[in-house]
Amino acid sequence: MSSVQHQELQEIADHTMATIADQLLLPQSHYIDVLLDLLVVAPSPIVRSAIADRLSEIRFVSMVVTDEVRADLYGIVAISDFSDAAPDGLAWAEQALICDCTACVAALKAHQLDVSPTTLEVAPEGCS
After folding, report:
1. Which of 18, 56, 63, 66 registers the highest number of CB atoms within 10 A of its CB?
2. pLDDT, tens digit, for every residue of 43-101?
3. Burial annotation 66-87 (CB, 10 A radius, 16+ → b, else e)
4. What's the whole-model pTM score?
């Protein structure tokens, strides 16, 4: 993720946290707007996946507790920070998320099980 996109993501999160500082509940529609804004500026598949997961979790509620919103925003920014800090180490994972070949699926499953040495061995190098 470029520094401009990361800065935009951070600004959206900061602005949202400032506007909900004195609220206990946030309407679902407002929170969806915030998550969609974050989704637009987050090109990393890992960050986009985290945002999409949260969107599906709040699909059937009318209000969201602002403590959860703050935790989500901190988490999304932290994931973004992490994906920025380790772009080379996770480049294969970002490619594997958008690929359907068996090597990519196997690499992601191995990584998900936290088998680091195996992950490095099965990570596809020239995956299409």
Report:
1. 66
2. 778 888 889 989 999 999 999 999 999 999 998 888 887 766 554 556 666 667 777 77
3. beebbebbeebbebbeebeeee
4. 0.66
3 state SS for the chain: CCHHHHHHHHHHHHHHHHHCCCCCEEEHHHHHHHHHHHHHHCCCHHHHHHHHHHHHHCCCCCEEEHHHHHHHHHHHHHHHHHHHHCCCCCHHHHHHHCCCCHHHHHHHHHHHCCCHHHHHHHCCCCCC
Distance between CA 72 and CA 61 in Å, rounded? 16
Using CA of residue 24, residue 27, residue 31, residue 33, what is the dihedral sign? Answer: negative
| Residue ranges of domains in the chain | 3-85, 91-122
Summarised one tens digit per residue, pLDDT across range 9-39 is 999 999 999 999 999 999 999 999 999 999 9
